[in-house]
């Protein structure tokens, strides 16, 4: 049985199509990263899973329960960290967690949960005085109440410093080890790359790619990053940069001291090096690297993708 099964779901707001026949499956026990640029339809998808909104067409099932007629059962088994904290300014951190425990008829220890998310010291403080990061941690504590089978985290690292983001990743991994399924949307690609079993990339309401991070990389074997060290620092406006940028198969050129960072197709590498030498600049060294998930994300979601023939 899958954790989330979205079947041919279309959602229109008036003439605006937010989702267009979306098919998406999240397996039980996996950490699924849901990526997409602003307006791609991520929040719409999450709202449909939780029955906060209804699809124009298609069906959503969670643990084989119908998202519409069995939404109460689904919510009992789900922990939600919504985008943007919705806290009660006059309640303390502990009161928030106690409230979540009561609502779910769970028996968690509120202090243990606050300790787990790193804000035990602020348990007695009113949430109105919490920083963004503390609010996010508190919301995570309430999401963890009752050991939910499914955790839905919408942009979980919002407002967190690097330490907070690392702790968030640790908690996500612990939840998976416990057997929970984690579905999270993010723009912070490093988070997704570090923690997800699979990644789905949404663009304009369509899932345009879905695979492991390695699988996404393999589907774009031609895209590499070439770092070329020169014998001199190229001026940002120098002719050599313009010439390399103009080459077929080169998508970007970024100077970094004496290094030129060139995103290009593999077969453009020789042309890049030749063009630099043609401009009387000596190549002292060069190395090629794998595309980071960030570069893949840009490649998949920018218009260049259509020209690059990325697998749909
Ligand atoms: N209540 C609404 N009424 C009209 N249009 C809406 C509504 N909610 C979302 N949309 C539109 O649906 C599309 C998808 O929006 P959605 O909020 O799901 O995207 P998102 O991927 O979550 O974006 P973001 O990363 O910016 O939060 C957008 O074009 C948005 O303008």
TrEMBL record:
Similarity field: Belongs to the ABC transporter superfamily.
Annotated keywords: ATP-binding, Nucleotide-binding, Transport
Protein name: ABC transporter ATP-binding protein
Keyword Nucleotide-binding among UniProt keywords: yes
GO molecular function: ATP binding; ATP hydrolysis activity
Lineage: superkingdom: Archaea
Domain ABC transporter as annotated: residue spans: 4-229
